[in-house]
Design a protein that fits this description.
Number of strands: 10
Number of helices: 9
Radius of gyration: 20 Å
Distance between the termini: 62 Å
Strand order of the largest sheet: 7-6-5-9-8-10
CATH topology of the largest domain: Alpha/beta knot
CATH class of the largest domain: Alpha Beta
Low-confidence stretches: none
Number of domains: 2
Largest sheet: 6 strands, parallel
Structural class: alpha/beta
Helix content: 25-40%
Mean pLDDT: 90
Order of helices and strands: EHEHEHEHEHEHEHEEHEH
CATH architecture of the largest domain: 3-Layer(aba) Sandwich
Length: 251
């Protein structure tokens, strides 16, 4: 099945990544945006067809007016296996850092999580097949193309996936708003997988039971919850911060 993605940065990242082959790029006539030159160069190197069309045609293809004057046809998004993510971690030789997204249905939230995970060096992401958004063009756009650079697995059973990871020595941290243990009191310098729950329900009960420990993000305002993307970013940063080398002080 052919998918349509749109936007300068997602298409540029798709061309750089090689993982999901771009078949054709369609550009609006008169488009002079600066990143276009690099996209045209990469497309020429890979022998990808370029077509010029009116902006209205692109709007119909992208089903949005925010396509920035460029769309691309490509194969359906290619997921990896969870074992591929584990192998990637083992090959890199550092502590495991995985993100498990349990049932996020908002594509903007999932895209934001993917973008943050890539920026913070996560080895891979796992999402469920049911009751959750897959990797769609909207998710790719929200991730600014990071979905093409971060291995993403899509599994039938998240709880079974966590068992698989635990057998390989990976600890499971569940981000849970009701937990009395704040995230900054946790030892995060472990081989770790972080579980982020859905926007409304949080982590599902069976998945929560598989977590080795739960932690919350302390909040002090009248609003007592964060959306999945923001919560995930804060937890992932705490993991990253705990692993950064401590700089010495100067006299």
């Amino acid at each position: 099945m052919t998918h349509i993605i749109h936007g300068l940065h997602p298409i540029y990242q798709a061309l750089k990544a090689h993982r999901n082959p771009v078949k054709k790029i369609i550009i609006s006539r008169g488009n002079t945006r600066r990143p276009l030159k690099e996209i045209l160069r990469l497309a020429a190197e890979r022998g990808i067809s370029i077509q010029w069309a009116g902006r209205d045609n692109l709007t119909r293809m992208a089903k949005t007016t925010s396509h920035q004057g460029i769309v691309a046809q490509m194969d359906e998004f290619k997921y990896v296996e969870v074992s591929d993510i584990v192998q990637r971690w083992e090959a890199r030789g550092d502590k495991a850092f995985l993100l498990i997204v349990d049932g996020v249905e908002d594509p903007q939230n999932l895209g934001g999580l993917i973008r943050t995970a890539h920026a913070f060096g996560v080895h891979g992401i796992v999402i469920p097949k049911d009751r959750a958004t897959p990797i769609t063009p909207t998710v790719i756009k929200a991730s600014v193309g990071a979905a093409f650079h971060t291995p993403i697995a899509r599994v039938t059973n998240i709880a079974s996936c966590l068992e698989f990871l635990k057998k390989r020595g990976i600890w499971i941290l569940g981000a849970e708003g009701g937990s009395e243990r704040p995230i900054y009191d946790c030892d995060l310098d472990l081989d770790l997988a972080v579980v982020i729950g859905s926007e409304g329900r949080g982590i599902r009960p069976l998945v929560k039971k598989k977590c080795d420990f739960l932690a919350s993000i302390p909040l002090h305002g009248e609003i007592t919850s964060l959306n999945a993307s923001v919560a995930g970013a804060l937890v992932m940063y705490e993991v990253l911060r705990g692993r950064l080398p401590v700089k010495g002080t100067h006299d």
